[in-house]
Structures are given as C-alpha cells and as structure tokens.
Amino acid sequence: MTPLLAAHGLTVRYGSLAALDGVDLRVDHGQRHALIGPNGAGKTTLLDVIAGATRPVGGRVLLAGRDVTRRGPAARSRRGVGRIHQRPAVWATLTVAENVRVAALPHAVRPGRWRPGVARRAARATADTLLDRVGLHDLAARPAGQLAHGQRRQLEIAMALAGRPRLLLLDEPAAGLSATEVGVLVGFLRELPRAVAVLLVEHRLDLVYELCDTVTVLRDGRTLAAGSPAEIRGSELVRRAYAEGVV
Ligand SMILES: Nc1ncnc2c1ncn2[C@@H]1O[C@H](COP(=O)(O)OP(=O)(O)OP(=O)(O)O)[C@@H](O)[C@H]1O
C-alpha cells in the first residue's frame, strides 16, 4: 500500500553542517511513529522539511504518493499535514474559539462549494466540537494570550485538528507540561482516531513507548535505527547514543 508519507534521501545543510544527511522515513496511514535522538540530531529539521517550512537541498517528500517536495506549508496543509510546534503558536489577541475557527475556516467546506455563511457556521461547529475534546470549552471566550502554557498546547492541538490532518506532526508536545497536563495529553493522543497518523518528536521515552508503534532514531542528521519500541529499547546502539549525549 502507498505510504501516507515517504521521505527519501532528505538532506539539509546549514553552512558546513548537515542537519539532515540522506534521511529516509516512511509513515503509514494511522501509524503512531516516534522520532527520537540526542539534541541536535535533526528531528525538528525533519519535521520542518515534511511540513514544507524548510526546503531540502537533496531528497524528496511524497504524501500519499504525490511528490510535494517543492510545495510550501499551505499546500502541505491542504494535503493533510497538521503541525504543532515546540512553542505553541496561537494568535494571542484572538479568543480561544476564534483561534480554532480561523484554523478551521479554510477546511470548513469542500473546494468549489465555498459560501462565506456556510463556511463560518461549519467552522464554528468544528471549533465547538474540538474545544470540547481538548477540554477548553469553558475558556472559549478568553483571549488566547491569557492561557497557561499547557492550555496553549491543547489549543494548538485543536487548531491543528481543525485542518482535518491525515498526518499530525507533534514537536515535543509534553515539554513544559505538568504531570497532570501530560496525563491529559496522553489520554487525548491515545483517543485520536486512526484516520490521523502521528509523527511525534519527544524526549520523554516513557511517552514514546506508551504511544507509538514505530520508532526512528536520528543522530547527527542520519538514521541510527528504526523499529518497534521493544527493538529500540533493546538496542545497544541506541543506548550508547543516548549515553553519549542527550536530553
Ligand atoms: N536555522 C538554522 N541555522 C543553523 N543551524 C541550524 C538551524 N536549524 C537547526 N540547525 C542545526 O541543525 C542541527 C539539527 O537541529 P534540530 O533542531 O533539527 O535538532 P533536534 O534533533 O530537533 O534537536 P533538539 O532535540 O535539541 O530540539 C543542530 O546542530 C542545529 O544547531
């Protein structure tokens, strides 16, 4: 079956540094795939390339078999790529509900059927549902800038889901969250429908092993290992890479 995401030979250079050096990655429909590795391994750069925010100097990105290497972030989003960032990116002066509605609007009606009133109503309904799901319904009227970090994280996830992604890129979603908030996040991610595949960058290996069925380990811009959580957990190569300098 054609994979949802296929990346071949991705290379990104910053001066003499190869942030990515010929990386291959495959994510299947509905998969929970983790990307781990020491600091500076290239994990965020790989998400950037998949999201279309960074153009590689070599390699190709295919989404459901289509080459999108030359397409920007908006085109990737239309093709089903959603993303949350290391630092939650929300519009601080808009309310929580408005943030999700704005994110939902371009996806609210099918292309060619655009009518402003219909789209606005659909976006409003999507926002209501998603704010319920992430537990922010009671804060819907609050400016997003007033939210605590963990709440912003939930809001950004709701905004990403408003784009109806088939592939959700999550960059360290647990960073800066309290233990309770991590529990909420994990519960939420476990309940995500399988129609959404997840590519998760996370330093907390307990979360990786709990949430993911496949793990790819990067180091110095290259793939060090890939396999099931059990295989990665048992890998001496991975253990050494982590012992030598991580997190
Ligand atoms: N815009 C940039 N300009 C120059 N170097 C960069 C840039 N972005 C990333 N790098 C370098 O590329 C390498 C890979 O960085 P990247 O952020 O992808 O790593 P990472 O695995 O996500 O690390 P971390 O776990 O610390 O977030 C690092 O050496 C980093 O310093």
Helix content: 25-40%
Return the string of H and E elements. EEEHEEHEHHHEHEHEEHH
Corresponding CATH superfamily of the largest domain: P-loop containing nucleotide triphosphate hydrolases
The DSSP helix count reads 9
Number of strands: 10
Query: What multimeric state do the chains show?
Result: single chain
The number of domains: 2
Decide which structural class fits the backbone. Answer: alpha/beta
Low-confidence stretches: none
CATH architecture of the largest domain: 3-Layer(aba) Sandwich
Q: Look at the structure and give the CATH class of the largest domain.
A: Alpha Beta
Query: Which band does the percent of strand residues land in?
Result: 15-25%
Structure description:
With 247 residues, the protein is α/β, with parallel strands linked by helices. The chain has 2 domains: 1-80 and 167-211 and 218-247, P-loop containing nucleotide triphosphate hydrolases (Rossmann fold), CATH 3.40.50; 87-164, no CATH class. Helices cover 37% and strands 24% of the residues. The chain has helices at residues 43-51, 73-78, 96-104, 116-134, 149-162, 179-191, 205-211, 229-233, 236-244, and strands at residues 5-14, 17-27, 32-36, 58-63, 66-67, 81-84, 167-171, 197-201, 214-219, 222-227. It has a 6-stranded mixed β-sheet, with helices on both faces. A 4-stranded antiparallel β-sheet has the order 2-1-4-5, covered by helices on one side. Strand 1 and strand 2 form a beta hairpin. Helix 4 crosses helix 5 (149-162). The longest helix has 19 residues, at 116-134. The protein starts with a strand and ends with a helix. The protein binds adenosine-5'-triphosphate. Adenosine-5'-triphosphate binds at residues 14, 17, 19, 37, 39-45. Residues 14, 17, 19, 37, 39-45 line the site of adenosine-5'-triphosphate.
